[in-house]
Design a protein that fits this description.
The complex is a heterodimer of chains A (about 250) and B (about 280). By secondary structure, chain A is mostly helical. Chain A has one domain. Chain A has helices at about 5-25, 35-45, 50-70, 80-115, 120-125, 130-170, 175-185, 185-215, 220-249. In chain A, helix 4 runs antiparallel to helix 9 (about 220-250) and helix 8 (about 185-215) runs antiparallel to helix 9. The radius of gyration of chain A is 21 Å and the shape is elongated. In chain B, a hairpin with a 2-residue loop joins strand 1 and strand 2. In chain B, the strands form 2 sheets. In chain B, strands 6-7-8-3-9-10 form a 6-stranded mixed beta sheet, sandwiched between helices. The longest helix of chain B has 17 residues, at about 180-195. Classes of the chains: A mainly alpha (about 250), B alpha/beta (about 280).
Chain lengths: ~250, ~280
Amino acid sequence: MPGPLAGFFEQMGRFIQMMGRVFAWTPRPPYDWRELFRQMVKVGVNSTPVVLLTAMFTGMVLALQTFSVLSRFNAESFVGSLVALSMVRELSSVLSGLIVAGRAGSAMGAELGTMRVTEQIDALEVMATDPVHYLVVPRVWATTIMLPLLVALGNGVGIFGGYLVSVVLMGANPVSYVNRTFQFMQLNDLLSGLVKAAVFGFLLAVIGCQQGFYTTGGAEGVGRSTTAAVVVASIAILISDFFLTRLLF
Amino acid sequence: MTEPSSKTDTVKIRIRDLRKSFGPKVVLDGVNVDIVPAESLVVIGGSGTGKSVLLKHIIGLLRPDSGTVVVDGTAVETLGNREITEFRRKFGMAFQEGALFDSMTIWQNVAFPLQRLTKMSRGEIDDRVEECLGMVRLEGVSEKLPSQLSGGMRRRVGFARAVAHQPEILLFDEPTTGLDPITTALIDEVILDLSDRLKTTTITITHDMESAFRIGDRIAMLNRGKIIAEAPPEEFKRLDDPRVQQFIHGRAEGPLSEETPARGPSDSRDDLGEKTGESGIPSRS
């Protein structure tokens, strides 16, 4: 089998194996709530500023773009609906996923990678502690929980960004803009975005941990794992986004 | 090829025809050795001769390509994931560079096996951690992080962590490399005391011949993936195998220096120099 293809299947196999181990270990005690909480702070709270900043500017630029396009059809009044639906259904979850992959997924790759090459993972195993249980399980669930919360915040901030641009810059009527924003939105739109976010969070954490976990080759290897954690997770998010969208709507 | 020299009925660890390759590189090429309870075995050999790989097979961190490691009647390679976790309770292992958890303080590091492997109360753990750190002459560092200590101190913490839960079997991967002679002597004494007083079975990997003769009930030399010599210290010194003599006396010239260098990429999970190191062992003997 040619190299790249073999590499792909190896990665795939490791990913599935890691996922299986996470599910197998999750229900088993001891439950490390403190570590889960620590990771939630690390992944969620610390990513909040950059996620909100992104959401804000995405909402703003969306308003600019849709205004310019919709005005050609004399449909400027729909800017609010379009911005809100785009943010909630698609952009907030995908962009937050990519950012958290870059921020937290890479950190997981680097941290676990370093632990691997300095034999800390071996040391855990020696002390009768399963490294997946101890290291990977809290990271995966922390990310799966926190990403939807980040996305929910991002939704609000993005919509607000769109409102600012439309009302302040484009002179839209504030009341009718707000009405339009929520006129066509259904609960399903909101939920599907959050479900996607949870899946992205799960994927990026499993991939980040898996890349770190199987690191070989010292410091250089840690660098490779960190890069791979971001690249593979980003691709996984974009591809799974398509299939999830197809499935959820 | 020497046969295991143990004449005792009870064997704590029995290793038979153990083979392991990483990619094209043969690291262990049929290792046979028996270790009796409370014995202190020292394994010597050049860099990259698979000493660490041997240790990792005993504790089940690596699985053999063929051959077997039997500890207390249990074949390690047959254990499933859950059984092996139980099995490892009887072991303590000190890693080459300490392998301390760098997000934890020294106290947390040494307390880790106690919290995970024993039912000790917080107070008992406190006492035991202090005692173990005292054993390696490290006081007042409990609240520090590993990154705030020197390499030698980290190694000593790793040693304290390995012995903390009083395991039946201790594996030491170069416990004294890079330590000053006084600390080395100290660590040697602790190892001796553990096997004398607590009847702990210890396997120590070292390059330090002085230390090897001091702590070993028996010394085994690993070369090209095989045990080429095995004897109690006094006897070992007198072995006329030129490879053994070259190693003991640290001569640059000799049969050990004529080995073929490694071929093929180093492809093991362990990447810290020595195990997968320079002088790989395309085996032919």
